[in-house]
Prior knowledge:
Blueprint lengths: L9 E4 L5 H12 L3 E6 L2 H13 L4 E5 L5 H15 L4 E4 L15 H28 L3 E6 L12 H21 L4 E8 L5 H6 L2 H8 L10 H12 L10 E4 L7
Parallel strand pairs: 1-2, 1-4, 2-3, 4-5, 5-6, 6-7
Helix pairs in contact: 1-2, 1-8, 3-4, 4-5
Amino acid sequence: MATSLLENKVAIITGAGSGIGRAIANHFADAGARLVLSDVDDNGGEITLAQARQRGAHAMYLHADSSQPRDHAMLVREAVERWGGLDIAVNNAGIAGTQAPVAELPPEAWDKVIAVNLTGVFHAMRAQIPALLVRGGGSIINISSILGQVGFRNAAAYVAAKHGLVGLTQTAALEYGPKKIRINAVAPGFIKTPMVEKNLDAAALGMLAGLHAVGRIGDPAEVAAFVTWLASDQASFVTGAYLPVDGGYLAQ
């Protein structure tokens, strides 16, 4: 059901080609936002774009590698040139990376995950914050993970990046809160996305479902609904927070 929660707000969503990013795009479309969508998966990105437009959104899709500073600068530039500014950024793009114990993880595999999942968000915020300041404030939502608080075997790079992202988010929130930019980290539990399904077999997914208090893994729409609220003015007193949407995974 369409709402005006984000009416005419201009939003960048990275990693919009599938999973949580696509769900956020659709929820933002329903809420009235104007969308700049990006991914490295152009086929997936175009599908998301079509879905958002079918929901009545003004939207565009751009190929962007989230590990590259110039690509983040391009996304911001396009938002400003097309719709006059930027109000919201959802830094969602991420990769799972190679699964291996620490002593067996190739350095290049470590570097790739850190480049996308942590350094890429730093590059994103460096590009986004000046545009938000011009608007007099706004909201940045960085998609972390439950693994931004706890460990997980064979996922050292991913866990380290998501932990680092929480610290980056909190520091930026302290710096820019006085300038009316809210910056938060959302921490999904295990969500039924292509990335999760690609890296985990049915037995592993069943085991992980049992680690959530609700007894199942999540749906991307459940994360997207929360992100939509967090991006809106209804969340005006929420910043610098690490906010799990995890079915109770971290309660144990």
